[in-house]
Amino acid sequence: MIDATENTDETNDVRGARERRDIVSGEVMPDSRLMRFVADPDGNVVPDAASKLPGRGLWVAATRAAVTTAVEKKLFARAAKAQVTATPDLADRAEKALVTRMLGDLGIARRSGSLLLGFDNVLRGLQSAKPPKALIEAFDGAADGKRKLYAAAHRLELNCAVIESLTSAELGLALGRENVIHAAVQPGGLAERLTFDAERLSGFRLRTERDS
Fold first, then answer.
1. d(CA 35, CA 112)
2. What was the pLDDT predicted at 206?
3. Which residues of the chain have pLDDT under 50?
4. pTM of structure
């Protein structure tokens, strides 16, 4: 039987992705669609974006609506089988935790030399022998430049993830520049992790179709 905890709810699909049970819907789904929460020593429910904090994992679909439902219906206490407290701002804190994690990874990518920054550099990267694995476009950036890069990636038949979960200001904060619209990350663990977290973050951003 699969339940909400990390010790007894894990299965694997052919790609090796872990699956968990959402405490709101009861649906078993890949952890790329879920957010882990734990209770801290004081019994307060906190988001665990990296899925590494100690304690019993409480898994919720990575959407603002699902986390809000879990709070309002006191489903965290039911799943934890303990008196735990989940505050109304939990969805906001989950979103912030994911953003912080992604910005940290972008900073690492910049320092390691695996980041391409700016339209021209990204376009040259797409046309290179080792194209980037993740194409990052500011959530609030102009559509024209995005379309040109998407068209180039499509024309070159590149299997690269497109990330549009972060704003220009957030990208600038991570990369130490203003008005960052276009970036890309070379293949590797950072690109995979950014893609994983972007999928989850999209469920907390108000303008996504998932929460419309």
1. 28
2. 58
3. 1-16, 208-212
4. 0.86
Q: How far, in Å, CA of 180 to CA of 182, rounded?
A: 6
12 CB contacts (<8 Å, ≥6 apart)?
Answer: 18, 19
Rounded Cα distance between 168 and 181, Å, is 6
Q: Is beta strand 134-137 parallel, antiparallel or unpaired with respect to 161-163?
A: parallel
Residue-range domains of the chain with CATH: 11-88 (3.30.1230.10), 94-211 (3.30.1330.30)
pLDDT at 154 (0 to 100): 92
Predicted pLDDT of residue 68? 97
Which helix (H) or strand (E) is 145 found in, with range?
helix 143-155
- The per-residue DSSP string of 57-88 comes to -EEEESSHHHHHHHHHTTHHHHHHTS--B--T
For residue 125, what are its two tokens? 């990267």
- Whole-angstrom CA distances from 13 to 28, 69, 105, 160 are 12, 28, 26, 22
* Residue 34: closest CA among 199, 190, 205: 199
